[in-house]
């Protein structure tokens, strides 16, 4: 059986960037900050490309919802090995529910059998889009996948849970979200970056999908975590125990 795979990739602040809260407390400052593909989405693309290379998948389509610059993220996904890309262009702040609705509209159009997302985007750490998408599309879901095996119209997913590994079997079509240990994404090579420039990248507008993307959540305030106060050195264990009792009150 050959299947079509849809992978959702988000452009986020690079994981190495230390973000700063804006002075007015309305959010974090991402002006002039390095942006990259969300790390869990790189794992999602890698998994889809491996399925394609193994002959299990016939086509890997990558999709991103966001500003024009998200094209760069899609080109990276194409360089990893995806076949074609779709940008759902929007300059709005797209919250997880809005993205899930957009992806649902795209599923209706493209009819993929497997939809892979990251378990969370490292900018807002929502961990919601995959779950909401599965609910909206009425599809089975397996979140935090650490192993994926597709066979005979089913997908078997292993997930690490407290104290063990859970095995789920879902009928296709299905939604999967990736955990860190699913695979190690390949390095993107220069020849593949060049090849990716020739692969198809289609841009569609939110309006074309007829989806209401207006925000449902309002951020009231964003603040830096409180600064840690300075520590102190004690001369011996006896004093340490004394301080823990009297000052920290943990004993
Ligand atoms: P979140 O629910 O925001 O933590 O995101 C979980 C996953 O949903 C991400 O790892 C992506 O696979 C997908 N996703 C979230 N936002 C977008 C977006 N704007 N465009 C494409 N995929 C997205």
Automatic annotation (TrEMBL):
InterPro entries: ET-Flavoprotein_bsu_CS, ETF_a/b_N, ETF_b, ETF_beta_N, Rossmann-like_a/b/a_fold. GO terms for molecular function: electron transfer activity. The keyword Metal-binding does not apply. One of its GO terms (biological process) is carboxylic acid catabolic process. Residues 25-213 form the Electron transfer flavoprotein alpha/beta-subunit N-terminal domain. Its cofactor is AMP. Coiled coil: none annotated. Pfam families: ETF (PF01012). Keywords: Electron transport, Transport. Belongs to the ETF beta-subunit/FixA family. Heterodimer of an alpha and a beta subunit. The electron transfer flavoprotein serves as a specific electron acceptor for other dehydrogenases. It transfers the electrons to the main respiratory chain via ETF-ubiquinone oxidoreductase (ETF dehydrogenase). PANTHER family: ELECTRON TRANSFER FLAVOPROTEIN BETA-SUBUNIT, ELECTRON TRANSFER FLAVOPROTEIN SUBUNIT BETA. This is Electron transfer flavoprotein subunit beta.
